[in-house]
Amino acid sequence: MKIALASWGSRGDVEPCVAVSRELLRRGHQVRLAVPPDLVGFAESAGLAAVAYGPDAQNIVDAYRDFWMCFFGGFWRIRELHRLGNEIGEPLTTCREEIGKTLMLVADGADLLFTGTNYEDVAANVAEYLDIPLATLHWYPLRPHGQLMRILPGPLGRAAMSAFWWLHWRMTRKVDDAHRRELGLPMATVPSWRRITERGSLEIQSYDAACFPGLATEWAKFGGRRPIVGALTMELPTDSDDEVAAWIAAGTPPIFFGFGSMPIPSPADTIAMISAACAELGERALVCAGWSGFKRVPHLDNVKVVATMNYAAAFPACRAVVHHGGTGTTAAGLRAGVPTLIVWMTADQAVWAARIKRLKVGTARHFSRTTRETLVADLGRILAPRYVARAREIATRMSEPGESVATAADHVEEFARLQVG
Q1: Does residue 407 share a domain with residue 387?
Q2: CA-wise closest residue to 341 among 322, 359, 357, 320
Q3: Dihedral of the CA atoms 246, 248, 252, 255 (nearest 10)?
Q4: What pTM, to 2 d.p., does this model score?
């Protein structure tokens, strides 16, 4: 089969799509892949040919982080929020026409179009125009349901989520209408997520059922079109793995710190805070620089900084993991069976921060409210035996990475065959 796949966003957004692409290619399918320009190299390093679509992800991630840091730090700063919102929205909106054209080229002649969450509405329009089936990938439950907002009864939670996404559609409807008009499609009367579901699309859920108890039962009514497959990661080796393993083996198990694609405003100050907190607790710190500039900070005896690492290899040897709350990093920590501290920055990361607390495998705090004192207190809390034991117990209920990728590919194959047949 010919399968077109597209995912725009940071490394954590794109890796699940790349993982499924590799598995489908291994199974003998023809794969066409589109990713952000600054992640084409990442896709190629995974053995895939890819075309670029949309703007570079890193610049948008910077503005996205700044917006939510401002929002949670002072939502009354309307002018600043408006300026930051424009920094995010303008490039994402102006490139929609180019994204639509690229998706048309990538999906032309395909048996199925597979898309990540970002620009899901554009992909849905393209799939409708080409009259091919659509599969989507969600890193946490985006569709209205009764499990996310547990402070509300199920029906009220679903209504609140529906209202949020309806408002979002109202704010973006003009650009959606313009795209549909360009394709000769009728104007939409309901939000894109409703159209995707009502069209009978496959909506793969890339997280574990253990993270959202009761959700699989609630979504059983969709007849298998919202399968929960587990987090989709590749666990690729890196050039630092041997160095990291040797450093871990040379001392006591460290605490991991990393912020993925979220650049840190002041890397030097953050490293100083991490070093001071770990020194007070008598711990070592293993820091993954990611998209931040940690690699340029001064050398510290109790801190090891590397540019990249294989989380699956390193996390089981750590005492705890501290990170931003990205889906892939959260899943790696849960699979490793170690306690977690999420120091989150954006709204989507807050979802996983709340999950970690609800699962009782760790705690969370907004990055802007994190200090040496809070870091010492939070780490002391999650290193307590009850959190360690709970983390180990939850790990037994998590999916294996290879199993998750294979299951996702199974669903894509089966769905495409049923639609083609």
Answers
A1: no
A2: 322
A3: 170
A4: 0.90
